[in-house]
Structure prediction request, 532 residues.
Amino acid sequence: MALRKFSILAFLKKNFDFITGVLGEIGLTVLIMGAALAICLLLVFVKSVI
Amino acid sequence: MMGGILLLPIIVAVIYREIDTIPFFLIGASLAFILGSLLNHFLETKKEMELKHAVVMVAVGWLLAPVLASIPIWLSNATASYLHASFESLSGFTGTGLTVATDIDHLSHSINFLRHFLQFVGDGIGIIVVSLSILGKTKISSVLAFKGEAKELGIRPSIVRTSRIIIGIAITFLIVGTILFAAAGIKEGLNPGTAIFDGLNHSMTGYATGGFSTRSQNLLFYHSVWVEVAAIVTMIIGALNFNLHYAILGGKRKEILKNIEVRILFFSLLALGFLVSANLIFSNLYTSPDSLFRKGIFHVISGQTTTGFQTAPPQHFMLLWPVFSMIVISIAMILGGCANSTSGGIKMVRIGILFKSIVREVRQTLLPRSAVVRGTFHNIEDTPITDTMIKGAAVIAMGYIVLFTFGTMITVAHGYSVESSMFETSSALGNVGLSSGITSPSMPFVVEVTYMFLMWAGKLEIIAVLVLMGFIILGLRKGIKK
Prediction:
């Protein structure tokens, strides 16, 4: 019965802040990784030029 | 409390049919219950606890808990001696991750789970936090003990409610981390059972910024970029402030970009990552972008978040890595992550306060004498920088530098190179766990005991240790006078 009443949309609406918060924190880590990878690419480029 | 922690791995022992390890946990738990009852009986007082008593209680508690948790580790022969078992247990509780276990790859699942669980409970959540949330004590003594454990949070007025929120946040990210690690493990060909077990354990130690691994080669075992990405996600999330987690999960998403600690962490990781990567590429050790990222950047993140996950063998640090990179990573380990997080080190907010106070001093000198320069920083809310804050940050930073010098000198005196000694000392003091190979079952006794002291002092942010020493000296003086 409880499962039948479960709506994924209602669940997402109810926990919107929480879910976007978790995704936001993961986003921050992805941002750091992206910036770090850009640094690595830049260094390899500089080394190849030198 | 400790008894309960030591009983949980029995579930793992039953699942993996490791019946022979169950008595080790029962013996450890029984001794913990007996000692707890005796201490409760003899030390109970009707007097209200003062801050100094709470700090001493926490400092002693952080020594007693590892002593008890080391019993199953020692009985299972996971380490060669009781001292090694105590080192392993203290390294677990403080979230350091330096290991002296003899054969991690062949440890029983239950003992391995205990090692990781100690990091999750000890460093990921905090012993006092767990005690408060379970026992529900809201007396002033609990608040003071909470402070003694270097956690000063203002999430909720009730300390019990705050403790439960901390546990809720930890469990949320434990689930997220387990899914990431397990998915990466399955992608790399591990069977789902092993991937989930390894994933759970690495998620516990990643979030706790502890760094223990189920593999003797640490994360190098997997040779997987996906496992490393999962590790970076859990390490950085673990290094963020609990107050910040609470604000972000509660809907204040913009806080993530405004927060002083996040900003300093972001820029220091990139700046130190740049220095290490540049040094590594120009010394021709790693020359491709992916190897620079997976060896250079990864170890800077692992070092500064004070986790200690490793994707290079310890001997590479000692024998191959340039001295400059070793020193930069040592600095990262001492700087540490955010305050009120699972990470160690001096902490970002203190670095921010010290930096802003220097800027304030310079501005004050340049402006006319009558001008008043005020400094503020944004950490959930705008906070003015006071002289007390600057003094507190400076004292702790100074304490770290003194202990770092002490530990390095002791290690160098045993014949190790200066850079390896600095690296390993920073790792122990900052509760990191990256190793250049000094920490091993054959390490000298004095170095082992020194690192145990550094791990303990680093976890308690030094002040608690000084208070305990002052308490002992005062007690001795009174005893001599009588």
Q: What stands out?
A: The interface with chain A takes residues 172-173, 176, 229, 232-233, 236-237, 240, 245, 248-251, 253, 256, 262, 266, 269-270, 273-274, 277-278, 281-282, 287-290, 292-293, 296-297, 301 of chain B (CB under 8 Å). The longest helix of chain B spans residues 159-187.
